[in-house]
Write a structure and sequence with these properties.
514 residues, 31% helix, 20% strand, 7-stranded parallel sheet, 14 helices, alpha/beta
């Protein structure tokens, strides 16, 4: 394993792959010539070391882009972190559409790569009557309001005991899962609208072979109010129970779920083209290797899937700040560019309307891992998008309609963003992390570690280790390995959080509570 990596030839920093002790000398190529750089202080693993003198106020370059400005004169060999670098980002900005011209080149290149045997890549999925495809055949309990959360959880517990006791009869039916949340009442404006849209999106998600919508009866987002958001639905697949209308709502719900299980049992896995896959992309707890290993790997995966006709969704808008022009200039047309500008500026205005600092990021965990500014984090974060052109821009609660790379409006919060990806139609979420987390989402959530230490230490959390990219594996090898792993998951392999029985859901709250 090498001691450090210089990501781009124009960078003024290198990233330590293991701790570089004070006084140790390394050889770095700077402006076309090899130079001996001596560490002036200890450089922790994942952190940055200057490879040239950087005067106060000058730009600091990583990934070939500015990640901030020097607060003071920085000497070659110095540790660069929050003590001597500051963000260079402002508030609302003016943007100009400057397309890269690579849209057609990408499409042609990927179409060529996808020819032949690879174009026939398949997973084993569940074909739904409405034309959608699921990678799971679970039964979901969706509460309309937080007041019935405990009832929903109790129903799921009892239903799973019953399901398991039936043996092979329901072998094709997955877990019965309740998705409690605190909303559905005492909300106003966009908050209430968001709750209804997200609940409706989940009710319509193809990973659920059957759905019980559990209402209380007196809530703002009651079942009758929610039905127009759901739209047309299969009456065998979606059932409704209003708790206030039944003497024993749990027993009634269990009766309904037994019927849903009979319906879901009729579905069997069959070969489905990978072009039907929709994959969400999210990161959390980044470290200094996030933009070197896991995020670029997910970007390569995204390009490969899109080349085969599939779809990916990138979210967490605040972690695009500082790298947004890269995405804007990859928009397939001017209309998408304008939508992306609105995506960015609407989120900035959301921060400002709450009197919050737009660039209050990265988090303490990010900083400990070596991320110094939001630009530093964003330039690593957006590498999950690969090199594909942007084909769609979605508002929070929208469902994906266009194959290819889509951008989705949602915050950086792990649970909220991952739920938004599922609601948008993602079958699976790829979640990169340098710090580790046990959380899940409504769909299989693949945890991809940025470093091998985390993968070894938290094997009960981590599904795939991208840390080997700075050890003994190539990007091409690991792209194939990740693609094969995702196909396995889509075909039924449980990820770590699923095996642990974890299923989380969170809705974006912006306004007041009555």
């Amino acid at each position: 394993m090498q001691d450090f990596i210089k990501i781009h030839e124009n960078d003024s920093v290198v990233v330590a792959l293991k701790t570089i002790p004070a006084g140790e000398t390394v050889t770095v190529e700077v402006r076309g010539e090899n130079r001996q750089i001596t560490a002036l202080e200890e450089i922790p693993a994942g952190h940055k070391m200057a490879v040239c003198d950087i005067p106060a106020g000058e730009e600091i370059i990583k990934y070939g882009y500015r990640i901030g400005n020097a607060k003071e004169d920085i000497r070659a060999g110095a540790w660069i972190h929050t003590h001597n670098i500051k963000t260079a980002l402002g508030d609302l900005l003016e943007y100009t559409y400057e397309p890269t011209g690579e849209t057609e080149d990408f499409a042609a290149g990927k179409a060529s790569e996808a020819s032949g045997k690879e174009a026939e890549a398949v997973f084993m999925g569940y074909q739904r009557p409405d034309g959608k495809v699921g990678v799971r055949n679970e039964i979901w309990i969706i509460p309309t309001v937080g007041c019935v959360n405990n009832v929903a959880t109790a129903i799921a517990r009892e239903a799973n005991i019953w399901r398991i006791a039936q043996g092979e009869k329901y072998s094709e039916v997955g877990e019965v899962i309740a998705f409690p949340h605190p909303y559905g009442c005492s909300q106003m404006g966009d908050d209430q609208e968001h709750t209804r849209k997200i609940l409706a999106d989940l009710i319509n998600h193809p990973n659920a072979g059957g759905v019980l919508v559990l209402g209380l009866g007196c809530e703002n987002s009651n079942i009758d109010v929610l039905k127009p958001y759901i739209g047309e639905y299969d009456e065998e697949r979606v059932k409704f129970v209003v708790a206030q209308e039944w003497e024993d709502e749990i027993e009634k719900s269990l009766e309904v779920i037994r019927g849903l299980a009979d319906y879901a049992a009729g579905f069997k896995r069959e070969p489905v083209s990978v072009s039907k896959l929709v994959i969400g992309m999210k990161c959390g707890g980044s470290d200094g290797l996030s933009g070197i290993t896991a995020n670029p790997l997910v970007g390569r995966f995204s390009d490969k899937l899109i080349g085969l006709g599939g779809t990916t969704i990138l979210t967490e808008v605040p972690e695009m700040f500082g790298a947004e022009t890269i995405l804007m200039n990859r928009c397939a047309d001017k209309e998408l560019f304008n939508k992306t500008v609105d995506l960015i500026n609407d989120f900035k205005n959301y921060f400002k309307s709450h009197n919050q600092t737009i660039y209050e990021n990265p988090s303490p965990g990010n900083k400990k891992g070596g991320i110094s500014t939001l630009e530093d984090k964003s330039l690593g974060c957006t590498q999950k998008s690969g090199s594909a052109p942007v084909r769609g821009v979605l508002q929070y609660g929208d469902q994906v309609e266009t194959a290819g790379l889509n951008l989705l409006s949602a915050p950086g919060n792990d649970l909220v963003a991952a739920t938004a990806l599922a609601a948008a139609g993602a079958h699976i979420v790829l979640f990169t992390t340098g710090r580790g987390t046990p959380f899940a989402s409504p769909v299989p959530t693949v945890k991809i570690s940025t470093n091998s230490g985390l993968a070894g230490r938290k094997s009960n959390w981590i599904d795939f280790n991208a840390g080997v990219l700075v050890e003994d594996k190539t990007m091409e090898e690991e792209t194939e390995a990740l693609f094969d792993y995702v196909v396995e998951v889509a075909s039924g392999k449980l990820v770590r959080s699923e095996a642990a029985g974890f299923h989380d859901m969170a809705i974006f709250k912006q306004g007041v509570t009555l």
